From TrEMBL:
GO terms for biological process: bacterial-type flagellum-dependent cell motility. This is Flagellar P-ring protein. GO terms for cellular component: bacterial-type flagellum basal body, distal rod, P ring; outer membrane-bounded periplasmic space. It is found in: Bacterial flagellum basal body. InterPro entries: Flag_FlgI. The basal body constitutes a major portion of the flagellar organelle and consists of four rings (L,P,S, and M) mounted on a central rod. It comes from Actibacterium mucosum KCTC 23349. Pfam families: FlgI. Assembles around the rod to form the L-ring and probably protects the motor/basal body from shearing forces during rotation. Its main location: other.
């Protein structure tokens, strides 16, 4: 009985759960505003100035091609020339163009090698146009690459720390084109919940209407609340959003258990419940070993030497925690606490929770990553 709680508690090395009610949260932290979003940018360029750690031209011919094109544009004719620089690397440059970014503002970029370069440490990114999904150039990146890794090698050993083939350039791109979006002309604006929930959407609707003192918000579904900008009597949509984004709302969460098998982590909400259930667990070990023997004929017998297989097979079942029972309405946090006290292995713990979920006794969404 009481040992079931002890049995179910060691599924992972780290267990986190919520034991207090979630406090009020700002609307800006619960929703995304329609049209107020970033845009992904990507570019293809060259990093130069590497200390012999660049691409091998024979293994990365695209590096030689873009380098030749760049030199041609700068007035250097390299047609028919053979050059094998070791200080150049082809890279992808990525960034996010934030909402309302204006021409001339600067954004951070990430630089990643795509060839066989060993390190980008100390390199400089040459002017690289960055395109959006529509194929238009919205920013141009250039600057010194800051790499978070390091590598060193000798004849018999190589040591690598971090990822030296990727780095960042803070404020490394300058915005050249703005996103065409008339935000000030909106008459209605949708608030998209990051975690759709009817209760939370209803509370947002009630809180916004209470803030403006009139029905200006309408819940359309579990993930959308529509705001009537004209009904707010604000001078602009920006003024309306600036007023409502700091309104506090208490979100409602689903009962959910999230299990990370790699790190041994369980995260659960306080609303997770387990019905009355009994659990028995044990470990079965199968061991097979081969010890072949060599048999030789007697002297002058004229026979052949043969290898005789010898196999030893054993099956052993470890003594488990036995049969344990959890009473109905027990919270999962109490079950996990008991399992941790027993020292159940992480693999066994996750199997136990899966089995309880399959039995229909775990009343929560079960997510395994």
């Amino acid at each position: 009985m009481k040992y079931l709680i002890a049995f179910l508690s060691s599924i992972f090395s780290l267990v986190l759960w919520s034991s207090v009610e979630a406090g009020p949260v700002r609307i800006k932290d619960l929703v995304e505003f329609d049209g107020v979003r970033g845009n992904d940018l990507v570019g293809y360029g060259l990093v130069v100035g590497l200390n012999g750690t660049g691409d091998g031209i024979r293994n990365a011919p695209f590096t030689e091609e873009i380098l030749a094109n760049l030199l041609e544009r700068l007035g250097v004719n390299v047609t028919g020339e053979e050059f094998r620089p070791k200080n150049v690397a082809a890279v992808f440059v990525t960034a996010e163009l934030p909402p309302f970014a204006r021409a001339g503002s600067q954004i951070d970029v990430t630089v990643s090698a795509i060839g066989d370069a060993k390190s980008l440490l100390g390199g400089t990114l040459i002017m690289t146009p960055m395109n959006a999904a529509d194929g238009q150039i919205y920013a141009v990146a250039q600057g010194s690459v800051i790499s978070g890794g390091a590598s060193a090698e000798g004849e018999a050993e190589t040591v690598i720390e971090g990822v030296p083939t990727a780095g960042v350039i803070p404020a490394g791109a300058r915005v050249e084109r703005e996103i065409a979006f008339d935000f000030s002309g909106l008459s209605r604006l949708r608030l998209a919940l990051r975690t759709p929930d009817f209760t939370t959407a209803g509370r947002i609707e009630a809180a916004v209407n209470a803030e403006f003192g009139r029905p200006v918000a309408l819940m359309l579904d579990a993930g959308t609340v529509e705001l009537n900008i004209e009904a707010t009597r604000a001078r602009s949509p920006a003024h309306a959003l600036g007023r409502l984004e700091n309104v506090l709302v208490e979100p409602q969460r689903k009962a959910r258990v999230v299990v990370d098998q790699r790190s041994g982590t369980i995260v659960m909400g306080e609303d997770v419940r387990i019905s009355r259930v009994a659990v028995s667990q044990g470990n079965l070990t199968l061991r097979i070993s081969e010890a072949p023997a060599v048999v030789q004929p007697n002297p002058f017998a004229g026979g052949e030497t043969v290898v005789v297989p010898r196999t030893d097979a054993q099956i052993r079942e470890d003594i488990g925690t036995g049969l344990a029972e959890v009473s109905g309405g027990t919270s999962l946090s109490e079950v996990i606490a008991g399992l941790n006290a027993l020292g159940v292995s992480p693999r066994d713990m996750i199997d136990i929770l899966k089995s309880i979920k399959a039995a229909g006794a775990l009343h929560a969404e079960f997510v395994v990553r």
